[in-house]
């Protein structure tokens, strides 16, 4: 019904199909990156504007480039300092959704790693990693099912899509998956033997990857008819490589009674899925669905629909309302929304709408809405590499940018506390300049690092303490007299410490 009114997807979108296939840097980004002497990390030189008090916590994000480069996931401070640079994705690999979560009562880091494909399908095949506080892998969650049909000629180790990696409080994780499926698409203007990208979600056991729950949108077309998708079929659905990605589930959350909340990008809808698979209700951001939309309630192409609060009478839901997509963009700003759904009157009312009128953003893909413990909200703008923090009154108190618009993106972004105690040792590099030695030291991920002891000498096995210095940023420097060998010791308070290897001073500064 609404499909016909929308513009046709241009072939230029199809040509950026593979967005992570060439490894690092054959294109030079104009964005500036920080460099260090003691490590090869290259975090972005962020631009940070603060307009008020911000909440504590580090920033967690990934950097995927819609062009040719994928950079590592990062933990940084809101003062432009690197805390931890994660693994650099290998060729044909990308990393999505870095965030701290809790598993069995302990803090963990999670991220998705795999092969990603850009719009119009915008999905991936991969695995989810759980790291402990020492950044060591503790679990790897996979979805193995030989019945999945793949885009052509790929060997897929695991079918987990890149959109969701939410841990539950019951030892499981919520994920999505995409299954290219042959389907009669004549009702929406496609071919009888057409191809659709079925959109599924799963609850998997973290330790065993066992499937605890599975739901497929295509198995519920009676409740979610194909005609409801706003993604035009034009040019899509003829073969499995260019299957029609009608549903595009991009977030999964869970209710205490076992039901799930899912968000469909191209239906502009949020569904409560009963544990028995039936759609309990749908909130459509344009037509309302099972709800009457109150003043200002209007969303489309949204991401990250979350349950904020539930009661007998109401559900409060947050989301990042992109309001833009590859098929419709540039007219309505992207916003953060908090909505109250009255389950008795079936009205959806606006509790909060977050928008920075000084810097309006139109984000066609990705993004998230994170409620912070002190009442603030962090919005990740997905395709636009900016985070904005809003205070409890809805004023923007911080804007942070980490790349060129529409070039670098972070699927989601989080501000959270984190304690990291890496198993890897500190790093040191030194050079000589006349009769002095310049020493550079860092320790990737060591959030408890307070300062350094520096050892030097002319005999590698007889080094002496030559200086102590408090930690200053990611890389701390000190200048001492002439020595041939150096070693540094990172101190975590007064009691814990860890030494680097002994390195010769070979370079001239
Ligand atoms: C980072 O940006 C600041 C402010 O714009 C600038 O002074 C500094 O030189 C930049 N650093 C790098 C490494 O590009
Ligand atoms: C897939 O592999 C087959 C057989 O090797 C080849 O004929 C076909 O062109 C390949 N398709 C793509 C899209 O690469
Ligand atoms: C994937 O789709 C095929 C049909 O194309 C179907 O046979 C198979 O069961 C589906 N797999 C899953 C996990 O839904
Ligand atoms: C698949 O469909 C796309 C889009 O219509 C087309 O460009 C491509 O050539 C088709 N591929 C094959 C192998 O038929
Ligand atoms: C699922 O449960 C709901 C509510 O209890 C019920 O209305 C619906 O018919 C059930 N669906 C199936 C397929 O059993
Ligand atoms: C929407 O995005 C497409 C693809 O990037 C682009 O071709 C088109 O010009 C955009 N439309 C608007 C109104 O910005
Ligand atoms: C928020 O609004 C209240 C009431 O208008 C005011 O008292 C308070 O100072 C405001 N807080 C901030 C952070 O602006
Ligand atoms: C370094 O000290 C060790 C132990 O005292 C000694 O055996 C060695 O010869 C010394 N090396 C140099 C290069 O002086
Ligand atoms: C290094 O040499 C300069 C003169 O060349 C001298 O002033 C300085 O005290 C020396 N520093 C050390 C640490 O020996």
TrEMBL record:
It comes from the Eukaryota. The lineage of its organism: Eukaryota, Fungi, Dikarya, Ascomycota, Pezizomycotina. Keywords: Signal. Residues 1-25 form the signal peptide. This is ASST-domain-containing protein. Pfam families: Arylsulfotran_2. InterPro entries: Arylsulfate_ST, ASST-like. The keyword Ion transport does not apply. The keyword Signal applies.
